[in-house]
Amino acid sequence: MTPNATGADAVIDAVTAVLLIVGALMSLGAAIGLLRFPDLMSRMHAATKPQVLGLFLVLAAIGLQMREWWVWPVLLVAWIFQLLTVPVSAHMVGRAGYRTKHLHPEFLSADELEAVVLRAAGERAAEKAEEARPASPPAGGGGEPR
To 10 degrees, what angle do helices 8-36 and 40-66 make? Predict the structure, then answer.
């Protein structure tokens, strides 16, 4: 860019600067949330929500600043990849944290997963108990034939 840019270039540069600053602040907020929040569930929220929006804003600023059409599909693919992987990874981390008791139940407003986990644990315990029972002799006959 030339140092004496006027008109549309100045507007694009100003919009790019605003997008970069806001995107960086969103990512900074995500990082601070990861450090400051008390439990796994709230940290997981802080890691996913503002980070994806911050990345979108930074990618939009890059696309505006590059001023080339070919860069937009590449940036869009990068953002879509984030949109597809971040919720899945957060879901997996959340379920693993729930099952290993790495959460504070007092911070949950509703525990919708508790009934499912208890039912699965009860079924597993019943299967193990049935496997542990000694085999009984077959009905209708004494012992072994001679």
Answer: 160
Q: How far apart are CA 113 and CA 76, in angstroms?
A: 35
The reply to whether the predicted model has a pTM over 0.90 is no
In contact, 89 and 105? CB cutoff 8 Å:
no
On whether the CB atoms of residues 55 and 80 are closer than 8 A, the answer is no
Lowest mean pLDDT, pick from 6-20, 81-95, 97-111: 97-111
Q: How does the average pLDDT of the chain come out, rounded?
A: 82
Residue 37's closest CA among 102, 114, 109? Answer: 102
**Residue 58: pLDDT above 70?**
yes
Contact in structure between 23 and 61 (CB atoms under 8 Å)? yes
